């Protein structure tokens, strides 16, 4: 169930320094990779079938192969703007083993012929950004970054770029705009970043965990790595479990582990006497699942089949002491605040949904309004440049469907408090 | 009386707007501010050097606008018109452009603020575990002190929920009493709630402390957190 590739002895003191990292065999994968032809590295990554760890789950090897070949200004951007509510896995990896990420980035840039790379880290992660800065300086001094890396002829400039607090900058094109020094508004796709991204050049955007896994893949071999995990979801995954569990935190599991083993086995489940009411399997953007879904295997395809998604691997557990209405309010408030305002369905849809929930609270809503609420969610999905609106619409839609009785009872109770006429429940 | 009549009145800002930020009408008769003239815009030498160092890191120097605004905010305490002008002068951009960028991001302040920042996460995990109560307690404790308290969206510290970021240092899980201690530590210039800082926390995964990439068997849990509440 648990298996440690990225989190292997992660708490070893000093692992954030080059000397300890090297003593453990760090940068060995880089030395090995620099002797291979670049195409062979992409091939290994393809063979590993690793799917992106940031949320969308797109195969990394495939994405890398979309990058045009040839000599031109290409960029690698590591997305470390970990802002999805419930997600904090990259934080621990960057804080405790920054060189894992740096090594993965050097290998990837060598394979894709890239000479400029950026780590876009969210501005709130000040400690982690400082640690990365120090690690980059150490790597530069040791000749792992800069000109002619280890005599291979490959050169790379790596810049740690701090954001300033905006969820939308975790969206890859919003991130690129922000990295260009603009407001972080998403762009129209296509062209996808692999064709036209940062400064109009082909750009590979990957999550911290995905890039951090590259050294492991090169050490093990893509074929070996693909044997870990489940069909269609290879490898291990860092997961962040939070909410009503007794041992919240980051864990590394083999994909395909049962969700019950994670929530109850690893994390101790909800407090004595409480039971799981609902859980978000992949951050607050994923449709909620119920207690009866706990026996599902935790991997990309099973979660998708269950009508949700694995997302960033952030499990938020909510026990039966909380109301579905309270959860919906919190989720909606977040997306309303974070909508960048570029696309109307998202800007107005999130705002309208928040006002609607306020109507429920003040006793003005009727059960019929729930149907309108659900229909507004379907009008957001797929109609914007990015998925921020969808990220609210999907969980809210699922809460309306799965907790309809509870929301109707909430509406009636609020109407009673407000002395409004009571509608009989359907 | 129906429920509608008892609705709380909608908060209105000046000019009858429901949206804050529209209180001061822009003077459209004035010509727009252009890129500041270096001869007329004195920039502190260390700020200029730091901004130029940031600009040199990128293929396109405009990319440094967020790092440069961070630097100016640290120097001036907030993104004052003077601070924006100085950044604009060094980066050769218009103040309007930089203001548009600064107003997009939560961490930039376009109004003067106290020198200490407490961001209390009030997102889903933290609020389920009592962040709203803590936010109220924190706001109360900070009253009359040089501390700004803000409810913030997910800070990525859900494992220590309810949590807060105090001048960038993540602390949690927080009790209501911690609000007072945070203010005391800030006033005394001590590290804030040192025993609750995230930087000292071990990984929750029991296997992370053990060896090798092999499947683990016994899960001792060195990182078992104390009872959250």
Characteristic terms for this protein:
heterodimer; A: 426 residues; alpha/beta; five-stranded mixed sheet; four-stranded parallel sheet; 13 strands; B: 229 residues; alpha+beta; four-stranded mixed sheet; globular; disordered C terminus
What does this protein look like?
The complex is a heterodimer of chains A (426) and B (229). Chain A is of the alpha/beta class and 426 residues long. Helix content of chain A is 44%, strand content 14%. Chain A has 17 helices and 13 strands. In chain A, the strands form 4 sheets. Chain A has a 5-stranded mixed beta sheet with strand order 8-7-13-10-11, sandwiched between helices. In chain A, strands 3-2-1-4 form a 4-stranded parallel beta sheet, sandwiched between helices. In chain A, strands 5-6 form a two-stranded antiparallel ribbon. The radius of gyration of chain A is 23 Å and the shape is globular. The relative contact order of chain A is 0.12. Chain B is an alpha+beta fold and 229 residues long. Helices cover 31% and strands 8% of the residues of chain B. In chain B, α1 crosses α3 (81-91), α2 (65-76) crosses α3 (81-91) and α6 crosses α7 (178-188). Chain B starts with 44 loop residues before the first helix and ends in a 41-residue tail after the last helix. Chain B contains 7 helices and 4 strands. Classes of the chains: A alpha/beta (426), B alpha+beta (229). At the A-B interface, α5, β3, β7, β8 and β13 of A face α2 and α5 of B.
